Amino acid sequence: MKVLATLAIFTGLLFSQPPGGGRGAVPAATPAPTPPVADKPLVEEKPIVTKHEIHANGKTLSYTATAGMMPIKNAQGEIEANLFYVSYVLDGTTDVAKRPLMVAFNGGPGSASVWLHMGCIGPKRVKMMDDGALPAAPYQLVDNDNTWLDQTDLVFVDPVGTGYSRAQNQTLQRKFNGLQGDIESVGEFIRLFLTRNERWASPLFLAGESYGTTRAAGLSGYLVENGIAFNGVVLLSTVLNFETILFTHGNDLPYMLYLPSYAATAFYHKKLPPDLQKSLEITLKEAEKLAVGAYNEALAKGDQLTDADYKSIVAKVARLTGVDQKYVDNSDLRMELTHYLRELLRDRKMIAGRLDSRLVGPAPLNTSEAAEFDPSMTAIRPPYTAMFNQYVHTELGYKTDATYYVLGGGILGWDYGQQNQNRYVDVSDAMRSAFAKNPHMKVFVGCGYYDMATPYFAAEYTFSHMGLHPSVRKNVVFQYYTAGHMFYIDVPSHKKLKNDIAQFLKSAL
Fold first, then answer.
1. Nearest to 28 by CA among 42, 44, 10
2. Share of the chain above pLDDT 70, in %
3. Which of 93, 130, 213, 498 could form a disulfide with 235 if both were Cys (CB 3.0 to 4.6 A apart)?
4. Which of 6, 41, 3, 53 is nearest to 23 (CA)?
5. Same domain (yes/no): 194, 107
6. Cis preceding linkage at 71, omega within 30
7. Residue 217 is inside which H or E element, if any?
8. Are residues 361 and 463 in the same domain?
């Protein structure tokens, strides 16, 4: 297994190795030796404002788009960084106190907000194949029938080092490229946006994906201490406790929590016995029962497991994961993710995707131990990169020669803080604290069954171990989708998500 390098593609979006280590996900991405900072002193820019109209779900939506930089200043009033953002405000609103505002971002760390912006929430979306696979170029941008703009105004923000957002210098870059600095700078962005756009009276929501859910949980706890409380927080493909997803020696938790996702993947690729191929729901229930029961017990016993019990659990795990018993045995019951994604389809000389295990790619070197690349990542990066660059320059009228860092290349190694040394990052307590101080807050958790980066069972585990007061447990709603990490690239899942979010917003208001 390859140890994660300073930066590695992990949850579908780029992020540095959190404390606690972690064994290889996919080959490490190579960061820029000297991540770019501003090439001249940062100044305040006048944002670019444009008018637009789309047709979505039989409705005509007229709106105002604003693209620009938000200056993040120190106590002396000097600009330390500029954060790029794009906002969409529905025209005709007379009372902003009744019009929700949602701030959205992606994860990584190192990812721009382009994925939620152009794939899920915004008024335009990148056209993919119906299942989310890569279409042939030239790529297309179309009206988003499932935009959330009919329900809420939207703000997409790129943290420092992503998109066009830049720090003034490398010293400041290091300040912002870390767990706490990232939360504080995005928190300051939110405060400034509310102030400059006179939206303090609006119902306020956050939406994050992948590491963006880590950021959102941290923000919910941080901002409530600064007088900003959220009506609701949307967590898509969430990871709040990194112990649940990092395959490290001595940490058996991920093996247990990934087992149902392995079963879902094997089900999709028809690698299970006939009785398990009849119903995904029934198969997942069996996998969940095994995971928290006999499999969890076997992992905990380690070498104390009897030979008979060991052989029994090997057979059960193999039956539910679609691989040979010998492979489970050779793995000592512990199949690390990229090894499993490689082994499952080895007989077809294919590998399954990490972000979305429905999507596959060729693996002609059939002797390799782990997946050489993620076919679900290579499917989305080219069309999203091309279409965003075209869109921001033409339709939004934001002109710049700067590189828009879609995924990595613009950040330094991520600093998880001294308090996280020798432990796993866990921001679930920040969310628990936010609930304690704002019991009206609602949380939506969206999970893809074929998400192999942030598995659904790990999300359930995190929330069931968060220590929420019984009075607020009802404020958390889970929804599930038959797609992967970015489940909205699948057409049916995208439509379901829109309907689910509409109901969530209604309940939160």
1. 10
2. 92
3. 213
4. 3
5. yes
6. no
7. helix 211-224
8. no
CATH code of the domain covering residue 98: 3.40.50.1820
Task: Say how many domains are in the chain.
Answer: 2
The whole-number pLDDT of residue 27 equals 32
Residues ≥6 apart with Cβ < 8 Å to 384: 114, 115, 118, 119, 126, 406
Both 353 and 210 in a single domain?
no
| Close Cβ partners of 172 (under 8 Å, ≥ 6 residues apart) | 37, 80, 81
Range of the domain at 367: 248-378
Does 438 lie in the same domain as 336? no
The answer to whether 490 touches 113, Cβ cutoff 8 Å, is no
Rg (CA), the chain: 22
Please identify, among 352, 378, 404, the residue that sits at the C-terminal boundary of a domain. Answer: 378
Q: For tokens 């398990």, what's the residue?
A: 276
Joined together, the tokens standing for residue 480 give 């599930």
Q: Are 332 and 302 a contacting pair, CB within 8 Å?
A: no
Based on the domain organization, do 219 and 137 belong to the same domain?
yes
8 Å CB contact between 80 and 53? no
What is the β-pairing status of strands 232-238 and 204-210?
A: parallel
Q: Residue 330 in 3-state DSSP?
A: helix
Question: Is 478 part of a structural domain of the chain?
Answer: yes
Please give the sequence-ordered ranges of beta strands (E in DSSP) within 91-200, or none if there are none: 101-105, 124-126, 141-143, 153-157, 166-167
**Does a structural domain hold residue 320?**
yes
Q: Is 244 helix (H, G, I), strand (E, B) or coil?
A: helix
Neighbour-count burial of 386, counting CB atoms closer than 10 A to its CB (0-12 exposed, 13-18 middle, 19+ buried): middle
119 touches 489 (CB < 8 A): yes
Which of 349-353, 397-401, 410-414 shows the lowest mean pLDDT across its residues? 410-414
Task: Tell whether 354 is covered by a domain.
Answer: yes
Both 330 and 469 in a single domain?
A: no
pLDDT for 25? 30
Residue indicated by tokens 């609103």: 93
Q: How far apart are CA 282 and CA 264, in angstroms?
A: 11
- H/E stretch holding 59 reads strand 59-73
| Spatial contact of 328 and 311, defined as CB atoms under 8 Å apart | no
Location of structure tokens 């069931």: 464
Lowest mean pLDDT: which of 120-134, 219-233, 329-343, 355-369?
Answer: 355-369
The residue out of 349, 378, 407 marking a domain boundary is: 378
Which residue is associated with the tokens 């390799």?
A: 368
Parallel, antiparallel or unpaired: strands 153-157 and 166-167: unpaired
Confidence of residue 34 (pLDDT cuts 50, 70, 90): low
pLDDT number for residue 58: 86
* 8 is a domain residue: no
Dihedral angle sign, alpha carbons of residues 299, 304, 309, 310: positive
> Does 236 lie in the same domain as 255?
no
Residues 223 and 260 in one domain: no
Tokens representing 94 are 């007379």
Q: Give every CB contact of residue 464 below 8 A, 6+ residues apart in sequence.
A: none
